[in-house]
Amino acid sequence: MAAQRAYTTHPLVLRRVTVRRVEEVTPRMRRVVLGGEDLAAFTRDGVGHPGFAAPGFDDHIKLILAADGDVRAALPAQLPHGIEWTPAAHRLTRDYTPRRVDLVAGELHLDFVVHGEGPAESWSAAAREGDELWFVGPKSSLRLPKRLDWIQLVGDETALPAIGRFLDERPLDVPAHVLVTLSDDAARQDLALREGDTVAWVLAEPGDAAALESAVRALPVPAGEGYVWAAAESRALLPVRRYLQRERKLPKDRLNITGYWHREEPAAPEAKAMADAAPGPAGIPSPLPWLVARAALQLGVVDAAADTPGLSADALAIRLGVPGPGIAALLPLLAAYDVIVDADGSGLRLGAAGAELLDDHEREEYTGHEAELLLALAHLAPALRDGTSPWRLASGATLHDTVADDAERYGELVEECEQLVFLLTGLTADPLWEDVGTCLLTGPGSASMAAALDDAGRRPRLRIAEEGVPAEVLRGHVPAPDRIDWTGGPADVAVAAKALAYRTDEEAVRLLTRLAEWTGTAVLVEASRPDGLSPHAAEAALHAFTATGSPLRDSAALAVLAERSGWRVERTVALGWGAEAAVLRRA
User: Fold this and answer.
1) I want to staple 139 with a disulfide (CB 3.0 to 4.6 A). Which of 386, 422, 470, 519 is the partner?
2) Which residues are CB-contacts of 249 (< 8 A; sequence separation ≥ 6)?
3) Rg (Cα) of the chain, in Å, rounded?
């Protein structure tokens, strides 16, 4: 059986609230109490939306602000089910944890650390009764394991709202062991501790990774089954994550680590000098540092510097089994970009950028599927001339053929699709499910689709079939895998969840033709346009073209593929974040 799913999803609704009062919790924490009719169920533009729900102690809502003060122009579009982040040049968003939710009083409490910088803190400092605030979320709530003997709650000052809410509401009746790093004793708060709980306050500068790691290592490890939750500055949490995963060997379902904020590091002097002296047009960086960072990860340079600080270049080369002076050729550029440094002559150590590369997500940008697509762009010009995909020219096979023979790579696609579950409310609420007894799922988003159906209380019998891909790749990602038929076959409806995103047009037509043999109704869930909230929105079409030879397929492009394979597009359901679901009927 699969482990319990880590999150419960919620409908995404844009809400307006106003300030009721402002309270000073400590000299370092300001509380803004908000209220408004949008916290209850309400109707906007003829569409009904559910009341606000944030049952998790570390839920996050996204506050919407504007650099130019015009918040209304920065608001996303509210869909019947979901949010569409339309482009807005001056939009600023920040995630905050509800400290308290009192739906009887119609109040939402938000706590802001008073540190003198940042748009959200500035807003809270100026907040007065009657001021409005718009927000979206939460999109999900953490599900804690049902059987635990203890929990450790670790964080800096920004984590205090979540920690305080956990202790107030006690979603688990187990001893809680709390560790908080503070920059000032004045930030201490009264916490609702019980017998068996412990609390440790540690003075440290914000974002001090060494102090946080040392404090976590000093925590006693209680007996029995436990869970560790941690939230602080993102870089400061990297060595903590490494310690908990590698030394304490906590499994993924017993660990939740979230970077609540990100400290901007000043550029290393060498990097600034190189940037100032670099020839060529401003704003078009050389790919050389990226390639060197990729090599450092692939060879194990970053991990070796983290595991054994102080190695010489020769000792590092011997440890990694790299002959000759090759490693030494990498070091100047790695030092210039603060990946591997030897500032005081005491040997090689990780710089700030190198510490970030210890995070699995950051590492994937250099060594995972996304990195392989980026390298394929070396073939962009000939691919455009030949009318094919850069991936095909680079590898000699289509991306679909590549992942069908590589379970690890397909698993990366499945993980990329995990966020899809937050967008599927509009599809699972659609009337097409009313008479569905059997649903066939295909594509790397199948696990997310199965989870969304489960969250919506839809219980069709599921078939999951992905051509050439072992069922084990998806099995651990879906609820109740033992109740699923892992073969294709007749179904009332078929959902292809991100199945076209790695197929060429010809491969997409073959898939849709195959689905027509099994069902008369199909749904295509795809990204049809860039996500307006992403800073990389301009790159989305090129990423799609690199993978398939086609840019992002909008409704018109999907209609053409449908007609070629004997289908017609009946309607399109907007899901938000640039995603759509096209409902097809056999022509």
Assistant:
1) 422
2) none
3) 25
Examine the pLDDT at 27 and tell me if it is beyond 70: yes
Transcribe 8-66 into DSSP letters.
Answer: EE----EEEEEEEEEEEEETTEEEEEEE-GGGS-EEETTEEEPPP---STT--EEEEEE
Does pLDDT of 1 surpass 50? Answer: no
Three-state DSSP at 523 gives strand
* 393-429 confidence digits (pLDDT tens): 999 999 999 988 788 888 888 888 888 988 999 999 9
Please write the tens of the pLDDT for every residue from 467-493.
Answer: 656 566 666 666 666 678 888 789 999
Residue 443 CA to residue 463 CA, distance in Å, equals 12
Burial string for 515-553 (b: 16+ CB within 10 Å, else e) reads bbebbebbbbbbbbbbbbbeeeeeebebbbbbbbbbebb
| Residue 360, CA distances (Å) to 243, 289, 537 in order | 14, 19, 22
Any idea what DSSP says for residue 135? Answer: E
Q: What is the pLDDT of residues 222-236, one digit of tens each?
A: 999 999 999 999 889
pLDDT one-digit tens code per residue, 536-548: 778 888 999 999 9
Nearest in space to 396 (alpha carbons), one of 385, 384, 383, 409: 383
Burial-class residue 380 by CB neighbours within 10 Å (0-12, 13-18, 19+).
Answer: middle
Rounded distance, CA 566 to CA 585, Å? 9
148-182: b or e for each residue (b if 16 or more CB lie within 10 Å)? bebbbbbbbbbbbbbbbbbbeeeebebbbbbbbbb
What is the rounded CA–CA span in Å between residue 165 and residue 192? 9
